[in-house]
């Protein structure tokens, strides 16, 4: 069974600084997807970034980038130039890559990020 | 532009009541999911459905049932609500066979915060 671990329950960063959120996972699959979702106080889960395991290049989306270490089963999220609107709960998630009927997302326990002015 | 709609944002029910949580998606997704979100536990899968009238148990199905009579609608049912079912409930949907890697992932509703008293 796959598991996803986020070891930082809470983090804080000053506005305009850079912060890194950690995520490790355990799987015997060779092909899969990894995700970071953001849940602001509005509760709407928003996809931040997606990484395909067969791609060596780390995904980036504007100020958000990942450090994907497949051998180490590590998938950290870096937020550059932090903004007050980045304050949210961040969830790391895993999905097997077979696109079948049961492509379930498995979530970590989340990291609550507070961006301080 | 709302794509996954949960009928109630907040709900207060009494112990022993039968509770229905409704979720509707307008993206013609085959898969629909119900998650429960609790602090420190992340998101845990209750049930999912990959087709009309089809359902499968997730990780924590006890005390819950589901119904999917139409493709766009997936209902979560608490047969006899108990206080330990006080939680945030999130509905999500996804494609069974995403056409491109960019289509992998879920679209979420904005959640129903259920309090059982």
Q: Which sheet architecture does the biggest sheet of chain B show?
A: 7 strands, mixed
Q: How many H/I helical runs of chain B?
A: 0
Number of helices of chain A: 0
Specify the structural class of chain A.
Answer: mainly beta
Radius of gyration of chain A: 14 Å
Explain what this protein looks like in three dimensions.
The complex is a heterodimer of chains A (117) and B (117). Chain A is mostly beta strands and 117 residues long. Chain A is built from no helices and twelve strands. Chain A has strands spanning 3-5, 10-14, 19-21, 24-26, 32-39, 46-52, 60-61, 64-69, 74-79, 88-96, 106-107, 111-116. Chain A is globular. The mean pLDDT of chain A is 92. Chain B is mostly beta strands and 117 residues long. In chain B, 0% of the residues lie in helices and 55% in strands. Chain B contains no helices and eleven strands. In chain B, strands 2, 4, 5, 6, 9, 10 and 11 form a seven-stranded mixed β-sheet that branches. In chain B, a hairpin with a 3-residue loop joins β4 and β5 (42-51). Classes of the chains: A mainly beta (117), B mainly beta (117). The A-B interface holds A 6, 9, 33, 35, 37, 42-45, 47, 50, 52, 91, 95, 97, 99-105, 107-110 and B 30-31, 33, 35, 40-45, 48, 50-51, 56, 58, 88, 90, 92, 94, 96-98, 101-102, 104-106, 108, 110-111, 113.
